[in-house]
């Protein structure tokens, strides 16, 4: 805005303010001023004209809203692809229920950061359901496992995932070996911090060929799995039933008959919707051959996503697994709309759905990038310092003497917290 146009704008706003003052109440309830005008200028009006009561927000602020007892809240913590980008983490969906339960569906690369933005105590983030073992669906499991245990998850991380056609292709194999890969990380933390969250994953591996079989039943929540068709045998989708609400999380798949049957009439149904083939070639740099194979056969093309949603008719259809940009959204939408005209969310990270029997409200979360861990729900357990694995004599002998500059921190903390800690 130029200086001149700014002066003009300010003059005009002052004029409007004076007119409102002369004509009636600024909030439009009485007098001749319309509510529309007074609201549009409220932000820059003189103080006596500004509304003073809080108005309902158009966005979701994490850690600021209680769920109603019969309400579900779904938050997209990753909607993208295996190839990382700042704007979209890979597949991850946080489902919160009015009974206090919380579930994570997939934990794709980059998603732990989005989960952290929700500021939920980590003791509540202990249940993870994996649709399959591609890294864009479980690549941040290590981040939640270690980072969560450091910041207040004082119990093992529970993980549900499918078997494979061989034991090596199953969830248990993957997680046992992931735990082993973390040997150095975990050994180095022994004797220093609360050990409870660092226990091995509690894995429930279920049959990937199970059709609508219950794999979880606790606290009034039933979660079922159905097979999916994607890359190899093994992938699945999940159906959550609670309080007469039905939520479906579709993992990667070619459109399949199990989803068509068992996702029918869901209150909210997520299904993958892959990047359209022309964009896969031009923007993702796939060859035309690979783009056709990946974009229409390994995954679900946007037109096929629409056809599936026209079959199951959810109260809200949610599409993910595409790069959602200013120049791709319209084409994805047009392709879906060629086969589906029902309620639709083209998801992106931090999209939020509040679901009740009467209403589905869709908003974006506005997050604080400066988050620290939320308060732990239990007191930390002091570890046994004897479990600490010592440095070798050679490495310990390389310590430069810093005792004089570190001692004041010990003095400060001992005084503040009534302790008697000494340097090693
Ligand atoms: Zn996949
Ligand atoms: Zn994927």
What is the fold named in CATH at topology level of the largest domain?
Metallo-beta-lactamase, Chain A
CATH top level class name of the largest domain: Alpha Beta
Please give the CATH architecture of the largest domain.
Answer: 4-Layer Sandwich
Shape: globular
What proportion of the residues is helical, as a percent range?
25-40%
**Proportion of β residues?**
15-25%
Radius of gyration: 26 Å
Number of helices: 14
Q: How many E strands?
A: 15
- The topology string of helices and strands comes to HHEEEHEHHEHHEEEEEHEHHHEHEEEHH
- The fourth-level CATH homologous superfamily of the largest domain is Ribonuclease Z/Hydroxyacylglutathione hydrolase-like
> What hetero molecules are bound to the protein chains?
zinc ion
Write down the domain tally.
2
Spatial order of the strands forming the largest sheet: 6-5-4-3-2-1-14-15
For the sheet with most strands, the description reads: 8 strands, mixed
Draw up the topology in text.
Layout: H1 3-23, H2 35-42, E1 72-78, E2 92-97, E3 102-107, H3 111-117, E4 127-129, H4 135-138, H5 141-150, E5 158-162, H6 171-181, H7 183-187, E6 202-206, E7 213-218, E8 221-227, E9 236-242, E10 245-249, H8 257-262, E11 268-272, H9 277-282, H10 288-298, H11 302-312, E12 317-320, H12 329-337, E13 344-346, E14 351-355, E15 360-364, H13 393-396, H14 403-417
Parallel strand pairs: 3-4, 4-5, 5-6, 10-11, 11-12, 12-13
Antiparallel strand pairs: 1-2, 1-14, 2-3, 7-8, 8-9, 9-10, 14-15
This protein binds zinc ion (2 copies).
